[in-house]
Amino acid sequence: MIEKEQTKMDIFISWLKKNGAKFPHLYIEKYKKNERGVKTKKTLESNKNIIRIPKKILIYSDMGKQTAWGMQLQKHDEKVSNPDIIYLLLFMVKNLDDERGFYYPYYQTLPQDLSHLPVFWRETDLKHLKGSHIQEVIRERKIEFMKDYKILCRACENFSTMCPVKKFMWTRSIIGSRNFGIFVDNIKQSAMVPFADMLNHSPDVNTKWYYKKNAFLLDSTKSIKEGSEITDTYGIKCNSKYLLYYGFTLHDDSKYRNRVQIKIPQQSKKGLLYKEKSKLIRDTFTCSINGDFGNSEFSSLMRFLRIANSNTEELNSSHVNIARTPFNRRNEIATLMHLASYAKKRLKAYKKTISTSEKELAKHLPYSNAAFAIKLVIGEKKILKNILMFCKTSLDVLLFNRRVSPRKLKNNIEGYILLLKQLK
C-alpha cells in the first residue's frame, strides 16, 4: 500500500514538472493517518518565490461553467448555495475516474478518507458535541449539500447516474476544504491548486500566495530553515469554522479562537411595552461571542438586553437608540441578571462540567475527532463560565459596591467596571 501511494506521488510530481510547475527546494513528507506536509530541502531566504503553479494546471470555476453541465446549470431557474464551488465540482466529476484524463495524476493524490470532516462523523464522535450550536450547523451543512445535489440532478443531464450521492459528498467536501480564492482572467474564482493544496495551516504562517502572470505563486515571508514545514493560512477563523471546514481546532490564545453561539430571547413578548421594544430590537438576539467582552459583538448583546429589560421611562429616553452604555443602575442589574440566567441555562445543556470534559479529553488521542470535538465544547463552556463571572463581578459592584480584584478583571472588562461605579 505504501509503495502504491509513493508511486502515485512520484507520477504526480513528474506531471507537475512536465507541465511547468516549479518548486525546486521542496518535497512532500507523509505523516500519520494519511496526513502530509510540504518541507524544504535547504534554508530558504525571506521574500523569495518558492512555488509556481502555471494556469494550465489549475482547475477553476470558469472551467466548470464552460462544460455542458455548467451551461445547463446557468439556464436552470433554481440556485445552488455556492456557485463557484459547484462549477468546480461539475468539471471534476466529469473526469475524476478517467485514467487518460489530464488531471488524473492530481486526482489520484487527493485523500479518499474524509472521516475527519464533521459532515462524515459517526454518532460516536458527534455525541461529544452535545450542547453545542455546531451540531445544528453540521446538520444544516448536510442539508445544504443535499439540496445542491438535488438541484444538479434536475438541472444537469445524467448527473445522478454519473455522480451518486457518495461521490458528490466526497467531491464537494474535497473542494470545500482545499480550494483557493484567486483572480483568474480578472474574475474572482474558486480554484484547485495542485501541490499548493498540500500545505498545512499554521497561525505562524511562513508564506503568502497570489495569482500573477498566469500562475499561482507562493513566496516565503521569512527565512525558513532546512527541514522545516512550509505552511499556509486558511484564514482567521474561529475554532468552530476550522472544525466544520477542515476537521481540526487550534489551541485558544489571545486571538480568541473559541466562540459560543448566543441566541437569547426577550423575556416577555406581551403588551404595549413589548411592541415598542420590537421597533428597536428583534424578538431574539443571535450572534457569536468570543472571550473578548470589550468588542462590538458583546456590546451589541448588551444593547439588546438593555432595551429588552427597559421600562417605559427608559424606553422613552433619548439614550434608547444607542444603549451601548448603561441606562442606569436598575436597568443594568436587570440586564446582567437576564444574561446570567441565559448563561446558566446554556451551561446545563452541555450535561457535563468543564472538569469532566477535561478528564474525558485525556482519554482520547490528541488529533482524533473526539479530541477536537471535546476541545471545542470546553472552549464554549469556558466562555459561558466567563460570562457568568462577568455578571457576578458586575452585580457585586452594583448591588454591594464591592471592590474588584485585578485577577477578576479578565476579558477586557476594566472600562466597563469603572463605568458601573458611576451609575445611579
Explain the overall architecture.
The chain has 424 residues and is of the alpha+beta class. It is 45% helix and 14% strand. It is built from 17 helices and twelve strands. It has helices at residues 2-18, 61-65, 68-75, 83-95, 104-107, 123-126, 134-155, 159-162, 165-178, 239-246, 271-277, 296-308, 312-315, 329-349, 354-361, 369-400, 414-420; strands spanning 26-30, 36-40, 49-54, 59-60, 180-184, 187-192, 200-201, 207-211, 215-220, 229-232, 260-265, 284-289. Strands 1-2-10-7 form a four-stranded mixed sheet, with no helix packed on it. Strands 3-9-8 form a three-stranded antiparallel sheet, with no helix packed on it. A hairpin with a 3-residue loop joins strand 8 (207-211) and strand 9. Helix 12 crosses helix 14 (329-349). The radius of gyration is 26 Å and the shape is elongated. The mean pLDDT is 93.
